[in-house]
């Protein structure tokens, strides 16, 4: 009887171990997003720098008007841990009253920042602190903010409230290597005509709703190919 119980428990733990390994292997989005993000970093090293204001890493658009920033250390981030920063003037020219933007937007020195706080953790690195290593911390600790956008074949970081930064799963087969994505609703409420924002595209984008069904939503987009 004792021997039978040992066999049963051994089998149980073997199955449990297999389930854990299988779940890890099933996280294709998390794993592959690291590879594709690394490809983006390798493609445009001249567009990557340390962001002095936030203490994070910044990936600039080729025209230098917009940047995606991700934190090196959540415990030290002054405001957001992931964010995009972009020029305010095109939005002001399209009718924006900056005083009417919600609290998750910050306007400073002719720029607008929007993002989200991921946590308060002190990030621990086993090796050098690099842009890729800091992105890997997001995948490791905050996997829920990483997604896959099937319609555009992009991976992306959710910045909260419908704002995102996305990049191509495969730059060789995609005509949009990186895309800055904004929810138009706060801008419309603050007076913007989204169809008149110079340098940005107001378009309908297919996304999955909470039930996994494809739906069309309005977005303000700034796509770029990296050379």
Brief overview:
With 227 residues, the protein is α+β, with helices and mostly antiparallel strands.
Explain how this protein is built.
The radius of gyration is 20 Å and the shape is globular. Helix 2 (28-43) runs antiparallel to helix 4. The chain has a 6-stranded antiparallel beta sheet with strand order 1-2-3-4-6-5. It contains 5 helices and 12 strands. The protein has helices at residues 2-26, 28-43, 89-93, 131-141, 185-189; strands spanning 48-51, 56-60, 66-70, 82-87, 105-108, 111-116, 146-149, 154-160, 163-168, 178-182, 201-208, 214-224. 27% of the residues lie in helices and 31% in strands. It has one domain (28-224). It is an alpha+beta fold.
Order of helices and strands: HHEEEEHEEHEEEEHEE
Number of helices: 5
Strand order of the main beta sheet, please? 1-2-3-4-6-5
What is the average per-residue confidence, as pLDDT, rounded to a whole number? 88
Binned strand content: 25-35%
The largest sheet, given as strand count, sense and whether it forms a barrel, is: 6 strands, antiparallel
Judged by helices, strands and strand pairing, the structural class is: alpha+beta
The dominant shape is globular
Helix content: 25-40%
Radius of gyration: 20 Å
Q: What is the number of beta strands?
A: 12
